[in-house]
Amino acid sequence: MNFIDNPGKLRGFEKNIRVEKVSRRSILKGLGVTGGFVLAAPVMSRQAFAYETGAGKMPHGVVVDPRVFVAVAPDGTVTILAHRAEMGTGVRTSLPLIVAEEMEADWSRVKVEQAHGDEVKFGNQDTDGSRSTRHYLIPMRQIGASARTMLEQAAAKRWGVPATEVKAVNHEVVHSASGRKLGFGELAADAAKESVPSIEGLKLKDPKDFRYLGKGQIGIVDLHDITTGKAGYGADVRLPGMKYAVIARPPVTGGKLVSFDPDAALKVPGVEKVMQVRGWPWPSKFQPLGGVAVIARNTGAAIKGRDALKLTWDDGANGKYDSVAYRKELEEASRKPGLVVRQEGDADAALKGADKVVVGEYYLPHLAHVSMEPPVAVADVKGDKAEIWAPVQSPGGTREDVAKTLGIPEGNVTVNVTLLGGGFGRKSKCDFALEAALLSKELGVPVKVQWTREDDVRHDFLHTVSVERIEAGLDKSGKVIAWRHRSVAPSIASTFAAGAKHEAPFELGMGLVDMPFEITNISCENPEAAAFTRIGWFRSVSNIPRAFAVQSMVGEIAHATGRDQKETLLALIGSPRIVKPAVKDMWNYGEPFDSYPIDTARLRKVVELVAEKGEWGRQVPKGHGLGIAVHRSFVSYIATIVEVAVDEKGKLTVPRVDTAIDCGTYVNPERIASQIEGAAIMGLSLAKYGEITFKDGKVEQKNFDDFQVLRMDESPVVTNVYIVPPGPDTPPSGVGEPGVPPFAPALMNAIFAATGKRIRSLPLGKQLEA
Amino acid sequence: MIKVKINGQEQSWDGDPDLPLLWFLRDEAGLTGTKFGCGQALCGACTVIIDKEAVRSCITSINDVAGREVTTIEGLHPNGDHPVQKAWRQVNVPQCGFCQAGQIMQAAALLMDNPKPSHEQIREAMSGNICRCGCYQRIENAVHLASTGV
Ligand code: FES
Ligand code: FES
Fold first, then answer.
1. Best residue in A92, A215, A223, A226 to probe B by mutation, most B CBs within 10 Å?
2. A620 φψ region: left (φ > 0), alpha (ψ -120 to 50), beta (else)
3. Range list of H helices, chain B
4. d(Cα A116, Cα A659) in Å, to the nearest integer?
5. Which pTM was predicted?
6. Is the pLDDT of residue A299 over 80?
7. Candidates B38, B49, B55: which one to mutate for ligand 1, based on the most atoms within 8 Å of Cβ?
8. Beta-carbon separation of A703 and B126 below 8 A
């Protein structure tokens, strides 16, 4: 069966379509801290932000309620809930830090607790789309300010003075006129009796008084635990009586089990049971693929048992999927007109009349996420109740899907969110948790389902495969007068509904129709492409192939006109202005254009900043080259310069990377730097090695030997990060994803500068050795 | 019955002698600090130290370590204050953190063998350990810091 009632309403798929009112269900339990902050007054769940964001349109919107997020214990310990998933961005620290900042809590006395999946209570929890800080900076400040106000009111009452005379300062409330002070802990019980102030009346701190925000001096809360092996990831959950399972899944997406022989597996010491797991027909959103599970007393035995299984599969309709043949199809489609998704002027005529036409056809294959922690989940299903422990990016969505899969009410499902050993979009899809739930239900005991790396590589929700073809028409002076960009790629929508042939608005909006260049004649087209495997979000999503194509084309135009790359880029971006493409209902990462316009002044700024700090135009040794690229994604602006060195044998090294990011108002510059450093490595990794291929419907790679990722000896020698200081009230924008897209084109432009070879097909592989 | 000393404690196993040490540590002994990343000695997430050497526990059978001393991340230092661990915190190395136990064990083994490695030697020695989040620059700096005194 199939759970798709209306793909447009599904979580994660064009999320901004789904608008739900926040339930006002009152939750008075606080955080179970006895004698603490248990607040009773009703509170507004939604409010007007200083600027509008798309947060309210996410499933279950935003909850601004100090009773839900903050608890103060009598000993003064402040507990703050982190309701988003931690996968390495630092969000589990950053969001509570915002609350602590506004609340005047002393960070050393703050405990962060991870919220379980409950979006009615906490608001949207989908940790994806680079939007945690962007959606929660203001709500978290308001939560902190509410808590602070309540503590101040309690103190004022205790002293019989007007609340305006008291002030919270570093974990105490002080009355400076009399020199009296009361700690947060001493005020906790009284503060709990205060009514929650209205959001409109809240006074937020003046940013010049910030102790933590924007400073970058606070390490992540899990730092000590991570360095001592105590941090708890999905696989680290151990329950009494728990069994360990691995699953043999159909090698072809949509394939089915024909028969299996468990005998040899059952002889493996430690193996206890072999059983079939229910699968869903493809496509079925995040439902399990099905297969055969081996249940054992430890994971090692389960893996050995699985190796001994004899399995026969029916590969089904996707058994012919072949990457070499499919690439040809995509290329051919890109050479013919397709669905026009943006049209300004007359690109056809202008191309015909152009003095010169520069054509580039850029290929980017499927990519696997290979987060360091392979998918894993623990489930304990008893009767009509289920408890899950899993590294999921979407705790709320997981809860919904577990409930639907088991046929039990959502309220009977508890989803505990562990730390994520990387996510990159893979863990937005909870199939692994559903598998654990199904097995635990059958077996009546807690079950851990561990994916091996081979499972992860072969059964991923892959980044799509694409051909991006750009034709740029130049007039005699070298000015670009026409731009035609055809994007051909199977859509993520294909994972939700059969037969999706065109890219969805959220994919088109990632670097195709929002292309910011000042060109009179523009045509963006999207020819059809069918999917033959599970396609899903991969960090930065369609921005990777788009930035690769568009920014490589800038390099090609620079070469064709004999001009500098950076000057060509700035000329194409054109005047500082707000770009308003002629596109109906254009997607803007779910954000309103008023708060998050396409601002070429900011785009130019990051180019100029990186050029200055990164010493664009500097003399480099022979065999070295510099390349530049800029891209707006997740409503942030980011530009990168890569210096590459290519030796006579074609061996490539990257001596230096410089990146400038404008992500608006920010919380933790230290984590921004770490995200950008990491993005350079992921960018180099995918540019150099990233490729998943299919033959006879099966993924040809299996582990880090044939799906290589970058290692330390080949990583950039230095990566410098420059953060544009935000203007007053500039809304925060994405950080986790924007770093990746400009890397590959900057690298390819650098390779061209170093060698004269233009790489249009990723990965680079051995192309320089030829 | 196989006997092995883990973090100074005697442990025994009478199951499959071929069981990879990794799964003995994680699932049988409850020492979950050592991570599973690939199972094929390709990523280093499962690195432990055996007799001063960094070893991939995913391809080392429990039988192979019979009678030997295994140190895992939990046993590297009683308070977690090994110079490598301290340096890691000072440099704010981790992102998701999943690879870091393996990285730290690899770095600790490197410094036992070569207390003052050059940057090239660090990059070389740490290249068996993958960090998908891309913390390499900081790992390199942290190993260097640990080697020069934290
Ligand atoms: S898990 Fe042992 S090296 Fe990857
Ligand atoms: S910190 Fe995530 S894999 Fe290294």
1. A226
2. beta
3. 21-23, 83-90, 100-113, 119-125, 136-148
4. 36
5. 0.94
6. yes
7. B38
8. no
pLDDT of residue A49: 52
Chain A positions touching B87 (Cβ under 8 A) are none
Q: Across the interface, do A229 and B72 touch by the CB < 8 Å criterion?
A: yes
CA angle A112, A117, A121 (to 5 degrees): 85
When scoring A228, A294, A307, A701 by the number of chain B Cβ atoms within 10 A, the one with the most, hence best to mutate, is A228
Question: CB distance from B43 to chain A under 8 Å?
Answer: yes
| Residue bearing tokens 């065109």 | A502
Share of chain A above pLDDT 70, in %: 94
Q: Is B131 in the pocket of ligand 2 (CB under 6 A)?
A: yes
Between CA A158 and CA A178 the distance in angstroms is 13
Q: Which helix (DSSP H) or strand (DSSP E) does residue A538 occupy?
A: none
Mean pLDDT along residues A598-614: 98
Q: What's the 3-state SS for A290-339?
A: CEEEEEECCHHHHHHHHHCCEEEEECHHHHHCCHHHHHHHHHHHHCCCCE
Q: Once rounded to an integer, what is the mean pLDDT over residues B78-95?
A: 98
Write the secondary structure of A262-281 as one string of H (helix), E (strand) and C (coil). CHHHHHCCCEEEEEEECCCC
CA distances from A318 to A192, A251, A253, A333, A694 (A): 59, 10, 7, 20, 10
Span A349-374, pLDDT tens digits? 999 999 999 999 999 999 999 999 99
Instruction: Tell me whether B148 touches chain A (CB under 8 Å).
Output: no
Question: Closest Cα partner for A23 from A65, A49, A55, A60?
Answer: A60
Give yes or no for residue A34 having a pLDDT over 80: no
Residue A487 structure tokens = 């994007």
Closest by Cα among B137, B88, B108, B114 to B44: B108
Q: What is the ipTM of this complex?
A: 0.99
pLDDT band of residue A43 (cuts 50, 70, 90) is very low
Instruction: Give pLDDT tens digits for A204-222.
Output: 999 999 999 999 999 999 9
Q: Is the pLDDT of residue A464 over 80?
A: yes
C-alpha distances in Å from residue A440, one per residue of A182, A295, A379, A409, A521: 51, 11, 6, 17, 59
Q: Compute chain A's Rg from CA coordinates.
A: 27
Nearest atom, ligand 2, residue B133 CA: 2
Report the chain B residue with the minimal C-alpha distance to residue A243: B27
Which residue of B38, B88, B100 sits with most ligand 2 atoms within 8 Å of its CB, as the best mutation to test the pocket?
B100
B102 touches chain A (CB under 8 A): no
The pLDDT tens digits of the residues spanning A495-546 come to 999 989 999 999 999 999 999 999 999 999 999 999 999 999 999 999 999 9
Q: Return the SS3 of A724.
A: coil
Q: Is B36 in the pocket of ligand 1 (CB under 6 A)?
A: yes
B19 and A298 within 8 Å at the Cβ level: the answer is yes
CA of B25, closest CA in chain A: separation in Å?
10
Position with higher pLDDT, A110 vs A20? A110
| Contact assignment for B126 to A227 by CB distance below 8 Å | no
pLDDT category at B99 given cuts 50, 70, 90 is very high
Other CB atoms within 10 Å distance of the CB of residue A537: 27
What is the distance in A from the centroid of ligand 1 to the CA of A538?
23
Non-local (6+) Cβ contacts of B120 within 8 A are: none
Beta bridge partners of A633: A636
In angstroms, the CA A496 to CA A382 distance is 30
Dihedral class, residue A666 (left if φ above 0, else alpha if ψ from -120 to 50, else beta): beta
Q: Does B141 touch chain A (CB under 8 A)?
A: no
For ligand 2, atom 3: residue with the closest CA: B131
